[in-house]
Amino acid sequence: MLKNSAESFGLISRLLHWGIAGLVVVMLSLGLRLEDMEPGLANLWLYGLHKSLGLLTLSLMVARILWHLYSPPPRPIGGGWQARVARATHLTLYLLLLAIPLTGWIGSAATGIDVVIFDRWTLPTIAPVSPDWEALGFTLHDALTKVLILLLFLHMGAALKREMDGDGTLRRIITGRAHD
Ligand code: HEM
Ligand code: HEM
To answer: N vs C: which end of the chain shows fewer Cβ within 10 Å?
Structure first.
């Protein structure tokens, strides 16, 4: 029940999928608000929240990858070009959800201000303090989040389309099994 099988999604993979999906929605909304702000004392906590939840997302993505190496996801339902596009989309979503928090962290570290998460842990500085690194980190962070938003629309649209076709794909990531 916890592990995946050749046909079904186990509980751990489903919790990771929906937990991370929820975090990503919160992170995109928070990020798009920060984009229009100037950092100051009044909104510093929002930046802190964005960084903390972003690092949590990164940790859960690493956990998800390790889990899927140990317990591979089920075979796709159906085949053909749709299955290939779905696979490529999933792979790109994984890469983006590693690269986006890392570029946010790089840009933040390059400002020279300590990256402190959950008001408690100071993260290692993973980039030199330099305006160039800051610009590089945040330019990539910004561009990659736009790609993520586009792909998520594709991902959700495809999931809803398949639900309407009734092939059990959406049901399987919610309840574990495609059919009773
Ligand atoms: C899944 C994780 C994350 C998502 C989806 C996300 C999303 C976003 C989005 C959409 C923006 C607005 C676009 C922009 O100005 O770049 C943004 C801005 C920002 N993000 Fe993230 N982010 C994530 C993780 C992180 C992490 C881990 C950090 C730092 C440790 C971070 C630091 C920042 C900062 C400082 C800004 C404001 C940049 C500016 O003012 O130009 N983000 N984020
Ligand atoms: C919002 C952030 C989301 C992200 C980052 C995301 C990411 C992913 C990834 C990477 C997979 C591949 C399975 C895995 O290896 O874990 C997957 C599977 C899936 N997702 Fe999402 N997802 C999100 C939201 C949603 C939503 C809102 C829906 C439904 C409308 C959905 C429906 C599905 C379905 C049906 C599958 C199973 C595909 C299959 O059986 O091959 N996802 N998702």
So the answer is: C
Measured CA to CA, the distance from residue 86 to residue 91 in angstroms comes to 9
pLDDT digits (tens, 9 = 90+) for 95-123: 999 999 999 999 999 999 999 999 999 99
pTM of this prediction exceeds 0.85: yes
Nearest to 107 by CA among 149, 148, 61, 140: 140
**Would you kindly state where each structural domain of the chain is located, as residue ranges?**
11-175
**104 in contact with ligand 2, CB cutoff 6 A:** no
Ligand with an atom nearest the CA of residue 98: 1
Q: What is the residue with the minimal CA distance to atom 8 of ligand 1?
A: 31
In the block, which residue shows the tokens 């990659």? 144
Q: State the distance between the two ends of the chain, measured CA to CA, in whole angstroms.
A: 15
CATH code of domain 11-175 = 1.20.950.20
